[in-house]
Amino acid sequence: MVDRLDQIGGILLFFGAGLWVAWLLGGTLINRRRAAAVSRWAYAEARPLGKKLYVRWITMAAFELTVPEARAPFRQLSFTGFLQSREMPFVWLWNRLRRRGDVLVVRAELRRRPLWGLEVYRAQSLLGGDARRAALEAGWTPAPGPDGLWRANGGGAAAELSERLVGALGPWAAHLDRLAVRRETPQLVLALGLSGVRPGAAPPLGACLTRLAQLASAG
Fold it and tell me: Does some domain include residue 54?
């Protein structure tokens, strides 16, 4: 009986190890393909915003695309893509439960400094904690909105600008993790969750970024 249990345990261990290795290899391959697709899409969206673009791979699942001489209303731009871990099943499942996936972070220096500062963010997002800390340091009290996003600003014109910016996101509003406007560089920070987004069929992003920069610069 004991020998039989040992045999069953050995078989289960063998198949478990095989499944783990298969997941590791499959997750690595999927991440590489996904990272390549997202970087190509980001490059295509950034191309109209400046003549020179540079791509640097931070890891196999993270890249940075910079536009050092961007067209107005920008001065310079950077796009940083972070791919979630798909190699480790438990990490992947934990991220899924917390609604954390692939993220694209856009940082922009504007030609004209904004008059107002603000934060809009999803509390459970990867950058939610950073946004909350920045808001509290600025003396703003974060408050939840009916759309599930938290907002923090000085009120008045800043609150109105916050709503206009969220509205200007259009279809990207559903993917918003963080939107920050401030007077210091970078004046505009946008983080988008890319879960469920297929690069080949994604809504236009470059024109959306230009609209956000125009609104932030104007008021």
Answer: yes
* Number of domains present in the structure of the chain: 1
Give the span between the Cα atoms of 38 and 41, in whole angstroms. 5
Model confidence over 137-190: pLDDT tens digits? 999 999 999 999 999 999 999 999 999 999 999 999 999 999 999 999 999 999
Tell me, yes or no, whether 26 lies in a domain: no
* Alpha helices, DSSP H, located in the chain: 2-46, 89-97, 128-137, 157-168, 206-218
CA distances from 166 to 108, 154, 181, 202, 215 (A): 17, 17, 12, 18, 11
Structural domain including 64 reads 34-218
Under 8 Å between Cβ of 50 and 65: no
pLDDT of residue 207: 94
Residue 205 in any domain: the answer is yes
Which pLDDT band holds residue 117 (cuts at 50, 70, 90)?
very high
pLDDT digits (tens, 9 = 90+) for 54-85: 999 998 888 999 999 999 999 999 999 988 76
Q: What angle do CA 47, 164, 167 make, to 5 degrees?
A: 70
Give pLDDT tens digits for 8-38: 555 555 454 544 444 454 555 666 788 889 9
Q: Two tokens at 17? A: 């190890």
d(CA 73, CA 204): 18
